[in-house]
Known about the structure:
The structure holds three protein chains of three kinds.
Chain A: H1 3-18, H2 21-44, H3 52-69, H4 73-95, H5 100-120, H6 122-125, E1 131-132, H7 147-170, H8 172-182, H9 184-189, H10 194-220, E2 222-223, H11 230-243, H12 250-268, H13 272-286, H14 290-301
Antiparallel strand pairs in A: 1-2
Helix pairs in contact in A: 1-2, 2-7, 2-8, 2-10, 2-11, 2-12, 3-4, 3-10, 4-10, 8-10, 11-12, 12-13
Chain B: H1 2-12, H2 14-17, H3 21-26, E1 32-38, H4 48-61, E2 65-66, E3 69-77, H5 82-96, E4 100-102, H6 107-120, E5 123-126, E6 142-144, H7 149-163, E7 169-175, H8 178-193, E8 197-204, H9 212-220, E9 225-229, H10 233-244, E10 253-258, H11 261-264, E11 275-279, H12 288-300, H13 307-326, H14 331-338, E12 342-345, E13 348-352, E14 359-360, E15 363-368, E16 381-387
Parallel strand pairs in B: 1-3, 1-4, 4-5, 5-6, 7-8, 7-9, 9-10, 10-11
Antiparallel strand pairs in B: 2-3, 11-15, 12-13, 13-14, 15-16
Helix pairs in contact in B: 4-13, 5-6, 7-8, 13-14
Chain C: H1 2-17, H2 24-42, H3 45-66, H4 76-98, E1 114-116, E2 121-123, H5 124-146, H6 148-158, H7 160-165, H8 170-196, H9 202-217, H10 222-242, H11 249-261
Antiparallel strand pairs in C: 1-2
Helix pairs in contact in C: 1-5, 1-8, 1-9, 1-10, 2-3, 2-4, 2-8, 2-9, 3-8, 5-6, 5-8, 9-10, 9-11
Amino acid sequence: MTRPLILVLAAIVLLPIAVRPAIATEIWIFAIFGLGLNLLLGYTGLLSFGQSTFFGSAAYVAGWLLKHYGINVFFALGVGLGVGALSALVVGYLCVQRSGLYFIMLTFALNQLFYFVAYQWTSVTGGEDGMPGIPRPAFLGIDFSNPINYYVFVCAIFLLFLLLMKRIVESPLGKILIAIRENEIRAGAVGFHVPRFKLLAFVIGGAFSGVAGVLYAMLFGIVPLESISFVTSGNVVFATLIGGSGSLYGPLIGSVVFIWLSESMSNVWARWPLLLGVAFVIVVLFFRGGVVEAWNRLALKSPKWFPK
Amino acid sequence: MGQMKRRDILKAGVGAAALGFPALIRAQPKEVVILGLWDQTGAFADVGPLNDRGMRMALEERGMKVLGKPIKYVTRDGATQAGTSTRRTEEAIDGEGARFVIGPWSSGVALAVSEVAKRKKVVHLFSGGTEDISGARCHRYSFQWAASPYTAAKTVVDNFMKANPKAKRWHLLVADYAFGWSVEKYIKEVGKSHGLEFVGADRHPLGEREFSNYVQKAAANRPDAVAMINFGGDAVAGAREIFNFGLTPKVPLIMSWSSGVEELVQLAPEIRDNLWVGTNFYYTADTPAAKAFVKAYQAQHKLPPGYAPSAAYSMTRMLLAGFDKAKSDDVQAVVKALEGLEMNDIVGPMKVDGSTHQTLRPYFFLRCKPKSAMKHELDFADVIATGNTPLPKEYAACKDIGSF
Amino acid sequence: MLYALMGLGLSLITGILNIPNFAHGALFAVGAYLLATVAGFLGNFWLGLLIAPIGVAFLGLIIEYAGVRRLYAAGHDYQLLFTFGLALILSEGIILVWGPVGFSHLPPPVLRGGLDLGFTFYPKYRLFVMLAAGFLVLLTWLFLEKTRYGAIMRAGIENKEMVSLLGIDIHRLFTVAFALGAYLAGIAGALTAPIRGLSPGMGVDMLGIAFVVVALGGLGNLLGAIAAGVLIGVAQAIVAAYWIEASTAVIFAVMALVLLVRPQGLFGIR
């Protein structure tokens, strides 16, 4: 086991002591979401501004099945994974041919369309009111309505997906995606079908988002409309960038920092988005590469206090 | 309760055992923890601080004490979003030990919070336009302070028609969520008895700011009156656009469910000309409680209180009255005490209907004054009528309030 | 026409600087608030309309000089994060300065009320805004087409290296372009204030629309942005007449469609 993994495990155990279980649970759910985005953003160099499309669609579909058909949690996660991947396949298919700002805006526009469908289709989604009453069915006698049981469950899923992502980025596929990020034309010239690999990254990212969406719906017992809005898409991008998009662990750190900070700041000062804005600006101006980068830089200066 | 927790923790395994404790340690049974869930960001960002003021005043009035125990007031930003609000409510219940929740402001979000209250078994007081809290989705823990949408629609339509008997062609602008649909339904229902014709009814999303398309459509219908069923910023933006298009003051505009002062102050006197307003509270209400409250409020904040701080103030007083009546801060005892509670508060005589958890109370209908008739800057309107017709039984969607 | 104005300003910034400026909506809001304050203080709407956008342009100048300047080499992701952070700071700043509760600013008395055009009403002030925005768009276009500096700017969109090699201070060009873009956002905000009133979140809706206009018109295609702005306004009005709930979504549908069929935008060359 590598050192960062041990740190992650330590964080999983320590986090609920520092913050409340519901927040700690949300942090790891958001981290799964971030892992999915990071495959696109950090590894393939695609800034998708529409990740909530997959997150929200999966949450709505699985939530609906949970609510009306009482499916079990693993089936719900499977549905989320499938819906996330499928919606990402559609969106990705339409988007991968575009690049730069056009790509960002296309993902954003498609996100808005999905949002509109969710907003208008009130008989199913509840529109503005959200889709409430999502249960957390017990499994094998384990009662997930207990916050700690659910936390442990989410952490297990999270670890599974973290290891999965680690395998993916360390596999040849990961190397190809990085090659695409570094130089798309060269990657194509070497013989890789670039759009197909981008699409694959999209689908994997979508599947991760879908799983996160379902866990989120079960955590709060509701699929709110904002779960499919561009605000959620933006949040995951920002969290990942704050953590550092270049590394596997960046999104985890970003998720911890982003959710923890916004939750605790919102209790202190009503105008907390101002501080968040300042944090963004500081990260961009001084710590591009996010927390991971800042840590590495500190490690260079005084390795004793900041081990690599 | 403690027993339950321990058993669950054992089940979750030793590794997780440490996790549950902070929640247990933080909840101190000696104090009464009340959560005010008010929006500081999002669509109702402007309302949250006002709610907070009202609630604080009601608590401070009692020296932050009830039944001899100190009250711990916890407040959270609901962000006008269902996800954030439910999350923070749960967090305050688990983490701070809150057993009593007041808010939030948006009715759609409140329905989500009401689900949390039901699941977590905490008392929930709410004021807003959805009838579902005391209707289709009623349950033992949630209470509705605002007048029933039926009471509001009846008061508005009856009294408007009394003043403008010829204005029979109405165009409606409706906010597209739970609250808008409820009031729209009853305005159409009550309108039947006056022979009203609804020449148009357009729905707009919550948080809409561009009303030109809606108003143009309304103008094309050439209605005798335009009635808006929306709230806060939406109502302000709509009223402004209707004025810009030259409809008001020629065509009367009705804001059927307004926050009163907070909306009116955002509109210039010219826009308020020929504006008719239905509201849950107006500061010139002729009740002793209102007079004292308005005086104290204006001493602190120049502006008189509108619906937002008043509702928070009165809901808090209602809850505290429930504690007094129950002589206990036990959740079930307080629920039972609130059911059937009668008090004379800022809006006048109020009674909580035990079978639906709807508060039966007067609703206000105002006519705005033209600039020349205003005695001072804040003299927006006169209360021309109040009405308290309760929801007829045949419409009541709350068949069974259920058990604990 | 207002959409065109917003889009034009954003198109300048995106085109020349190649930066997705998420703070454009916030600059719009600042323009509106400055107008209300200045016009209220001086008791003269027209002076407010003159001064407020200049204030926003100045703000743009500072932003470019202190922050955006360092980001040209960074990826779109960091530019996005930065400008979004700025947007948060500006809109929260508005709440701190002017308070969370919105207010109205009436049009000057001559422009109040509506004209009955027979088939429909139309507010006088909106007509004025249409004319004023049209005039400003024309003015900007003339500046870009007919003046030397305008030509340099257009060249900057086409090929930055070339312009730089010709001995022109590209940094100054960027600063001016950003400030000009901010000015256009500011004046659009100032013109909008009497229509929509003032509220801290007013920039957010506008931002989405501005990006759609830019994408439709083709990045950096200024004439395209103008045409797209008008087009979007018309499309929205038509859809509103038949299916009013969809009038906001339609602009994104149009954008998605156009980007799929013609990725360079309706009028883009690249």
